[in-house]
């Protein structure tokens, strides 16, 4: 049976083998890197891709602290459209 190896076999970015008694640098739970440099490069690439997606409307803008929590609607309604309320 061929196919992809275990995620801890090689660095996600440079594909350098992760073997021996060396440190493995993890990111997002299951992405392994051979060094802090490779991990940092992937983190920067992910952040840039996320900013691009937000700019082009693929992702919603993150809520800011200035907006605060959603406020109840007027006229006795509470919640957001599509919410299920237990009374």
UniProtKB/TrEMBL annotation:
A zinc finger (FLZ-type) spans 6-50. Residues 58-87 are annotated as: Disordered. Pfam families: zf-FLZ. Keywords: Metal-binding. Residues 6-50 form the FLZ-type domain. GO terms for molecular function: metal ion binding. InterPro entries: FLZ1/2/3, Zf-FLZ_dom. Belongs to the FLZ family. This is FLZ-type domain-containing protein. It comes from Urochloa decumbens.
């Amino acid at each position: 049976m061929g196919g992809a190896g275990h995620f801890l076999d090689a660095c996600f970015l440079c594909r350098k083998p992760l073997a021996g008694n060396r440190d493995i640098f993890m990111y997002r739970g299951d992405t392994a890197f051979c060094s802090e440099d490779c991990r940092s490069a992937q983190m920067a690439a992910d952040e840039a891709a996320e900013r691009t997606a937000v700019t082009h409307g693929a992702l919603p803008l993150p809520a800011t602290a200035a907006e605060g929590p959603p406020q109840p609607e007027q006229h006795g309604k509470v919640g957001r459209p599509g919410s299920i309320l237990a009374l």
